[in-house]
Specification:
The protein is of the alpha/beta class. It is built from six helices and six strands. It starts with 20 loop residues before the first helix and ends in a 5-residue tail after the last helix.
Length: about 210
Amino acid sequence: MNQPAAIWSMNRIVFDKDINLTQNVILTQGASALIATIDRIEQLHNFIKSSPLTNAAINRGIAPILSDICAQAGIAATILFHKGSKGRLESEFAYLLRVQRIQYVEKFCTEQNFSPKILTNRDVRNSLTHIDERLADILTKDSNIGWFIDTAINSQDEFVAPKDITIKFCRCYVISENKIMHLDQELDLEKLKQECISLLAIIFGIEIK
């Protein structure tokens, strides 16, 4: 099996001799996604604190932050926990590495008696990573649905929709619950943050205070 001649990166390379260099590099991308998820959650909270409104939050950074939280969490879930069958465009070798990588991650979690609940949830991962494939069908499925998209509001019932319109959410942050409501999924940001912190410590030896 060929390996890279060298790796230059600002990221921390795992260099675990139990796995090859390619796996080390891929796992490091997972670590970066975990760190990015934590950072984006903290940035979102800072945006909310600085907003002058009480029933919603306004800041042009909120929409991209919500999008990026979902994207980074989806990347981390895919790299570290994606157990699905071989993808249509996935090579046999890439699939084999993925299976080995998931087993490697699960071994560390088992040894530390840690059971991730959010990043291992396939429905959550799919709703985060395949949003571009789903939006067209979801938004046009029912004309009686009104959508909150990439917004931050104080509570789910903060605004009353006109008669006969049902409210649904896509990457909408509910401040009072500290959750992102995303299609039919709820993403508890405190639990997600703590899960990312635990995984960084258990798998990569990175301590986040």
